[in-house]
Amino acid sequence: MRTIQYVAKVLEELNRTVDFIAGDEADRLVDAILKSKKIFTAGAGRSGLMARAFAMRLMQMGFEAYVVGETVTPNLEKEDLLIIGSGSGETKSLALMAEKAKSLGAAVGVVTINPESTIGRLSDIVVKMPGSPKDKADGDYKTIQPMASLFEQTLLLLYDAVILKLMEKKGLGSGAMFARHANLE
């Protein structure tokens, strides 16, 4: 198969994923973001990269958004929201984070393949996604992609869809967001 044909296959897989996303829960995540004082995003590995991209867009919309683990990240408080992206929902460091956030009275949201996971059970909002956890290549959702690639790609697309819904609700366009784009690059 030619390399470009793999792109077509990946796009087919991504196109199918929309039917497997918990749409009502995604809407609840949007509402929780709108009600929160500060939003914190977290993820490990490639999911963590998607969390960083999501936090950047939230900041560009004017939300007080942070990536957990950065030196400039402030303390989490009761009115805040922690959003975790974790395919397995069992990443130990993220589970501890969710536990700590709950103990501080903050809301926790997770985007995961496994809603019955440790993080899923700790979360107030669980957005179920398709994909195969990286340790189970033959999971419930078949993919040609290695490890958790399909989950990570779909995670970014979901985060971008959440941004679009937030833009709609706040009446924002790209121009308003661009005004908050980094300008020291």
Order of strands across the main sheet: 2-1-3-4-5
Distance between the termini: 39 Å
- Unreliable stretches: none
Count the helices. How many? 7
Instruction: Estimate the mean pLDDT confidence.
Output: 90
Shape: globular
Helical proportion, percent range: 40-55%
Q: Main beta sheet: strand number and arrangement?
A: 5 strands, parallel
**Beta-strand content estimate:** 5-15%
Radius of gyration: 16 Å
Instruction: List how many beta strands DSSP finds.
Output: 5
Report the order of strands and helices: HHEHEEHEHEHH
**Which class do the helix and strand fractions yield?**
alpha/beta
Domain SIS: 29-172
Enzyme class: isomerase
Protein name: 6-phospho-3-hexuloisomerase
InterPro entries: PHI/rmpB, SIS_dom, SIS_dom_sf
List strands and helices in order, with pairings:
Blueprint: H1 3-17, H2 23-35, E1 39-43, H3 45-60, E2 65-67, E3 81-85, H4 92-103, E4 107-112, H5 118-122, E5 125-128, H6 149-170, H7 174-178
Parallel strand pairs: 1-2, 1-3, 3-4, 4-5
Helix pairs in contact: 2-6, 3-6
InterPro entries: PHI/rmpB, SIS_dom, SIS_dom_sf
GO molecular function: 6-phospho-3-hexuloisomerase activity
Family: Belongs to the SIS family. PHI subfamily.
Written overview of the protein:
InterPro entries: PHI/rmpB, SIS_dom, SIS_dom_sf. Its EC number is 5.3.1.27. Pfam families: SIS. Helices cover 48% and strands 12% of the residues. The chain starts with a helix and ends in a 7-residue tail after the last helix. The chain is built from seven helices and five strands; from the N terminus they run H-H-E-H-E-E-H-E-H-E-H-H. The model has no long low-confidence stretch (mean pLDDT 90). It has a five-stranded parallel sheet with strand order 2-1-3-4-5, sandwiched between helices. The chain has 185 residues and is of the alpha/beta class. Helix 2 packs across helix 6 and helix 3 runs parallel beside helix 6.
